[in-house]
Amino acid sequence: MKAVGLLEYLPIEHEQSLMDQEVEKPKASGRDVLVKIEAVSVNPVDTKVRSPKDQKEEKLKILGYDASGTVVEVGEACTLFQPGDHVYYAGDITRQGSNSEYQLVDERIVAKKPANLSFAEAAAMPLTTITAYEALFDRMHMKRNAEGSTLLIIGGAGGVGSIAIQLAKLAKATVIATASRPETKEWCLSLGADHIIDHHQPLLEQLKEKGIGEVDFILCLNDTDGHFKGMAEAIKPQGTICTIVENKHNLDIQLLKNKSAAFVWEFMFTRPMYETADMIKQHELLTEASRLFEQGKITHTLTKVLSPINAANLKQAHQTLEQGKMIGKFVLEGFERGENV
After folding, report:
1. pLDDT exceeds 50 at position 129
2. pLDDT band at residue 337, thresholds of 50, 70 and 90?
3. pLDDT (tens digit, 9 = 90+) per residue, 24-62?
4. Which CA distances in Å does 194 have to 145, 169, 203?
5. How far apart are CA 267 and CA 272, in angstroms?
6. Beta strand pairing status for 2-9 and 19-22?
C-alpha cells in the first residue's frame, strides 16, 4: 500500500523530509479495526514529530493523527464496528499514523463519521474536537451548563480554538477569544465568540476594558511561556488554566498560589498511549460530537483541501502550519489508488 513517512527528521524543505513509499498492508486483530483512509488532516503535532532531531528510523515512520475512512476489517475482539462503517478518529501517537492507504486503530478511540459531513470535513475534526472537549470538560471541569462562567481562549482561530469556541458556547459560557488579524477576528466571531482581544497586548487590561475582568477559565493554545504571567493575572481566584503547548522554560507556578488557581495540561494522546481505563471516552465524545454535527449545533472547521495524499502535498501542508498563520484546518483527501491495494 502507499504511505508517506520519514526515515530521518529533517527540515520540511529537505527532499527526504517526507517520502512516498510502498509498505505492507496491515491486518486487524484484537480490538483494532483496519480503516481504508479517505482523508487526513495535518496538525501542529505532525510538524513537531517531524521536526529536525538526531534520530533515524529503521523502517518508514508514518505520521498523521487525524483521519476519516471506511472500516474494511475488524479484529476478533471488536464490538463497536463492522466492515463498511464510515469512521473518523485522531489515532495514537505511539503507532503508525494515517498518512497511508490503510491504518490500524483501536476501536475505543474511533467513532462513526457524522453523516452530514464529507470525508474531508470529518477528517478535519477528531484531534481538535477531542483536545477541546477534554480541555474544557475533563481537565478544567467546566459544567455542561456553564452559564455565568467566562472562558478566555488564547489563539482562537486555530483548529482547537475554532471548535473550543463552539463547545463552550453550547455550554452557555461567555467566550473571549484572542486574535490579532482582521481575518482571524472575523473567523472567531463567526464561530460564536462573544468578545475578541489581542494576545499581543496585556490580557487583563483588555478584559477590564470589556467590562469582564478576571475569568473563570483560560485555555492556552499558543506560547505558554509568553502568556503565563498574563494568564496568572487574568485568572480568577480558584479558576483554572489549561494549556496544550509545552513550555520551553521553567514556569513560575507560585504566581497562582494566592489565587489557589489550578494549572493543568491537555494532551489528547494520553488515553490511547497509556491505554487508560477510560480510553473509550474518546469513542464516546467523538460519537457525541457526531450527533452535534448532524444536529447543526457545531460546524466543521475545514478551510483548505489538497488532493491527492502524497509527500508533495503533505510537505505543503507542513510548511503552511509552520508559518503559524493557519485559520481552521488543512485536509488532504484521496490516494491515487494502484493495482495492489
Report:
1. yes
2. low
3. 999 999 999 999 999 999 999 999 999 999 999 999 999
4. 17, 9, 16
5. 11
6. antiparallel
Ordered domains of the chain (ranges, CATH):
2-125+270-333 (3.90.180.10), 128-265 (3.40.50.720)
**Helices then strands, each counted (H, E), the chain:** 10, 16
Helix axis angle for 126-133 and 159-170, nearest 10°, is 50
Amino acid at 215: V
Is pTM, for the whole model, over 0.70?
A: yes
Q: List, in order, residues 6 or more apart from 84 with CB less than 8 Å away.
A: 70, 71
Distance CA 135, CA 197 (A): 21
Contact 247, 227 (CB under 8 A): no
Residue written as grid cell 483560560: 218
DSSP characters over 209-276: HTT--SEEEEEE-S-HHHHHHHHHHHEEEEEEEEE-S--SS---GGGGTTTT-EEEE--TTHHHHHT-
